[in-house]
Write a structure and sequence with these properties.
Associates with the 50S ribosomal subunit. The chain is elongated, with a radius of gyration of 26 Å. The chain is α/β, with parallel strands linked by helices. The protein starts with a strand and ends with a strand. The strands form 4 sheets. It has a 6-stranded mixed β-sheet, sandwiched between helices. The chain has helices spanning 15-23, 65-81, 98-108, 126-130, 152-160, 166-173, 191-199, 235-238, 244-261, 277-288, 306-320, 343-355, 360-373, 411-424; strands spanning 4-8, 41-47, 50-56, 85-91, 114-119, 142-143, 179-184, 220-222, 228-232, 264-270, 292-298, 329-331, 378-379, 382-383, 385-393, 398-404, 433-438. It binds guanosine-5'-diphosphate (2 copies).
Length: 440
């Protein structure tokens, strides 16, 4: 399903012209439903390199000025409801009208992100004319000329921010695409042994000497859950440096590279050593790169006091890795294979959460309970008014919260929202991004 973008605004601002410009020369009208939506046009378009479904809500030309606000609302409500993004068009030449303002007021209260488009800005004074649009409180206006094609690059860039990323679309299109997995961890944690275990054959050499040189080619296999997996190679797995110090450095650099490539990272922790600074650093790196993480608590066979080991790990995670709260931990022995069968299901689950999209309706029901439970704080004596939330992206889950001076929201309230989101939607161990957009 392509994301849906609605073009709305009062008559004659240039909605149809913009629609045609975005769709291109060959306008493919795929929907021309008679009745209420008689004049609504719908077409597939490429915007910012993505396929989108574009809606044009023209057809209000007959409305009298008195009824315009109401009429527009009726016709636009349906479009807004089914859209992931709205392009709100104004005519920068004629200036803002009461109808524009009424429309903007209404739009600000709708649970959908809005890109403000100031049309008809070709010519010398065009950019200047767009300035007035700031008054609408819908963020920066994008100055364009639908007729001349000016400003389209900027418009595409503005829209791109709200579209799900390409990887996400690809993975939806191709369910059989392999999951990109990184296995990270300090030298000797048991990464190679674990990989061999996952592969079910001795494809790599393992040994106790950290100086051993190993080579491997790209590995792809079908895991026990039946899904394809591709290992994003870590130099730490592929090749070991001669000097131990260099190895430490190199494996960090290799881990960073692997983390950029992967979707899920297995952090292999030597249970005999526990989660030390090095492991925490890797976990934080994974979080910063926005990856889902699963901890393989390895060498479980050699642990004497399992209860104490587990407790110690949990303490460390609680105090030092709050940004990945609820991170799954799978105790196992890569060597004996015990517990290893639980690893890939945990990876698949983390992957699913990482990919999960929450609909705007469901998200805002949660958001309202959060606001009701804890009113937003006062900043400099004024209350921050948060209006609604959207989730434009997954991989990692990204929530955008809109509201008056939202960008000034204090850190503890941001954390409250992120943790609440994690809890409500079961996003354990997944990085969560929160963006705040002031709508003034
Ligand atoms: P709609 O009613 O919002 O769909 O607006 P239209 O696309 O039908 O355009 C209304 C009028 O504005 C038409 O006469 C267009 O030619 C004109 N128009 C549209 N875009 C531009 C533009 O970028 N610059 C100028 N100068 N006129 C434009
Ligand atoms: P890497 O450097 O992270 O790839 O670690 P290796 O896979 O080479 O393992 C390092 C050492 O730990 C080897 O001597 C392995 O035999 C040992 N090892 C790996 N997994 C386990 C395990 O589950 N239990 C025990 N007791 N030893 C393990």
């Amino acid at each position: 399903m392509s994301p849906t973008i609605a073009i709305i605004g009062r008559p004659n601002v240039g909605k149809s012209s913009l629609f045609n410009r975005l769709v291109g020369r060959r306008i493919a009208i795929v929907d021309d439903t008679p009745g209420v939506t008689r004049d609504r046009k719908e077409a597939e378009a490429r915007i910012a390199g993505r396929n989108v479904r574009l809606l044009d809500t023209a057809g209000l030309e007959e409305a009298t000025p008195e009824t315009i606000a109401g009429r527009m609302r009726a016709s636009s409500e349906a479009a807004v409801r089914e859209s992931d993004l709205v392009l709100f068009v104004i005519d920068a030449r004629s200036g803002l009208t009461p109808a524009d303002r009424a429309f903007a007021d209404w739009l600000r209260r709708q649970p959908v992100p809005v890109v403000l488009v100031a049309n008809k800005t070709e010519g010398r004074l065009g950019g200047y004319a767009a300035m007035e649009a700031y008054e609408l409180g819908l963020g920066d206006p994008i100055a364009v000329s639908a007729e001349h094609g000016d400003g389209m690059g900027e418009l595409h860039d503005a829209v791109r921010e709200y579209l799900p990323d390409e990887d996400e679309e690809k993975s939806r299109d191709r369910a059989d695409r392999p999951l990109r997995l990184a296995i990270i961890g300090r030298p000797n944690a048991g990464k190679s042994t674990l990989l061999n275990r996952l592969l079910g054959e001795e494809r790599m050499i393992t040994g106790p000497e950290p100086g051993l040189t190993r080579d491997s080619v790209a590995v792809e296999w079908t895991d026990a859950t039946g899904g394809k997996v591709r290992l994003v190679d870590t130099a730490g797995l592929r090749k070991k440096a001669r000097i131990e110090q260099a190895l430490e450095k190199m494996s960090a650099a290799a881990s960073i590279a692997a983390l950029k490539e992967c979707e899920v990272a297995i952090l292999v922790v030597d249970a005999l050593l526990g989660m030390e600074e090095q492991e925490l650093r890797l976990a934080r790196l994974a979080e910063r790169e926005g990856r889902a993480v699963v901890i393989a608590l390895n060498k479980w066979d050699a642990v004497e006091d399992r209860e104490a080991t587990r407790r110690r790990l949990e303490d460390t995670l609680m105090t030092s890795l709050t940004q990945l709260r609820g991170i799954p931990v799978v105790p196992l022995s890569a060597q004996t294979g015990r517990g290893a069968d639980r690893l890939m299901p945990a990876v698949r689950e983390a992957y699913a959460l990482w990919n999960r999209r929450i609909g705007t309706g469901e998200l805002n029901r949660w958001f309202e309970t959060m606001l009701a439970r804890h009113p937003t704080p006062l900043v400099e004596g004024r209350r921050i008014k948060l209006r609604y939330a959207t989730m434009p992206k997954a991989r990692p889950p990204t929530i955008v919260v809109f509201g008056t001076r939202a960008e000034t929201l204090p850190e503890d309230y941001r954390r409250y929202l992120v943790n609440g989101f994690r809890e409500a939607f079961g996003m354990s161990g997944v990085p969560i991004r929160l963006q705040l957009r002031g709508t003034s």
